[in-house]
Amino acid sequence: MLIDFHIHAFAGKIAEQTMKKLTGTLERSDMPSKKSCTDGTVPDTVRKLKEDGVGAGVVLNIATKPSQHEVVNNFAVSISSDILYAFGSVFPLPNENNPAENIEKELKRIKSLGFKGVKIHPDYQGYYFSDKALGPFFELCSGMGLFVVTHAGVDALCPADVHCSPSMIRGVLDDFPKLRLIAAHLGGHLMWDSVCELLAGRDLFLDTSYIIHSLDKPLAERIIKRHGAERVLFGSDCPWASPAETFVYVDSLNLSSAEKDLIYHKNALGILR
User: Fold this and answer.
1) Range 120-145 burial, b when 16+ CB lie within 10 A, else e
2) Chain-centre distance for alpha carbon 164
3) What residues form DSSP beta bridges with 88?
4) How far apart are CA 1 and CA 14, in angstroms?
5) E strand or H helix that includes residue 258
6) Distances in whole angstroms, Cα of residue 117 to Cα of each of 70, 114, 218, 251
7) Mean confidence (pLDDT) of the chain
8) Beta bridge partners of 218
9) What is the torsion angle, in degrees rounded to the nearest 10, for the CA atoms of residue 23, residue 24, residue 29 and residue 32?
10) What pTM, to 2 d.p., does this model score?
11) CA distances from 50 to 1, 106, 244 (A)
């Protein structure tokens, strides 16, 4: 069984606009990119997952501003099926438009809806992962047992200004040891040496999303071996990388069958239950 823990799909009425915007961001940056493998809609995403032999996919969307809390999480509810699972999202930084009680209220709603965690994206939400004002959010998620998935490393939106680096992640783990954290892009896109030095072996999950475009296989093997396959999740970043291509990449790594089974589905099942 193959579970893709990092995919994106959008509501039909905004899918075309969102895909155009995100594709443009990739094209304007120096980030490696290929043509998207879906049109971003839910039906085409399901088609692609089935075509690529994926048994289940975890949809990770982002509330880029507080006013999107309800819309994003209601969409997550609406797409849940026997093949699609979803995480919720909140804008985690409190401010005058997003008081702390609103964040707590939405996290409680996310928990009540049965979601296993939330996705955040410091670059698109406009803060640094090391911002101390995020402390209450991390405490709430820890207390509720919610996983936090964060973009990690360089992003096409602002490649010269990294908002979530391996060193920032390590600092948060030191401050919030009970936090259930999943760092996308193997812990820090294009910051692989820092991942090896600062994160490998720490108590967090890393996913394999988008690494096929930029990470040499020997270094991927080194990171996974050092971190432990029991804390690595298969993820493609569909539609920006196809699940099938990502599977071919991971399957070619010098890992044992037992290690690959953990990455392909066993670790994900432990989270999703």
Assistant:
1) bbbbbbebbbbeeebeebbebbbeee
2) 12
3) 118
4) 31
5) helix 257-261
6) 15, 9, 31, 27
7) 95
8) none
9) 20
10) 0.96
11) 12, 32, 10
For the chain, the structural domain boundaries read: 3-272
Report the alpha-carbon distance of residue 205 to residue 231 in Å, rounded: 5
pLDDT at 187 over 90: yes
Q: Which pair of tokens denotes residue 44?
A: 């085409």
- Provide the token pair at 184: 């996308």
Structure tokens belonging to residue 142: 């820890």
Q: Are 146 and 107 in contact (CB under 8 A)?
A: yes
Cα distance from N-terminal residue to C-terminal residue, the chain: 14
Coil vs helix vs strand at 102: helix
The string of DSSP letters for 32-72 reads: -----SS-SBHHHHHHHHHHTT-SEEEE----SSGGGHHHH
Q: How far apart are CA 5 and CA 90, in angstroms?
A: 19
Indicate the residue type of 53: G
Question: What is the Cα–Cα distance from 119 to 127, expressed in whole angstroms?
Answer: 14
What percent of the chain lies above the pLDDT cut of 90? 89
The H-assigned helical ranges of 122-191 are 122-125, 135-144, 166-175
Q: Residue 136 corresponds to which amino acid?
A: P
Confidence of residue 20 (pLDDT cuts 50, 70, 90): confident
Please tell me the predicted confidence (pLDDT) of residue 143: 98
The pLDDT of residue 27 is above 80: no
Please name the fold of domain 3-272: TIM Barrel (3.20.20)
pLDDT at 246 over 80: yes
The two three-digit tokens of residue 188, written as one number: 């820090």
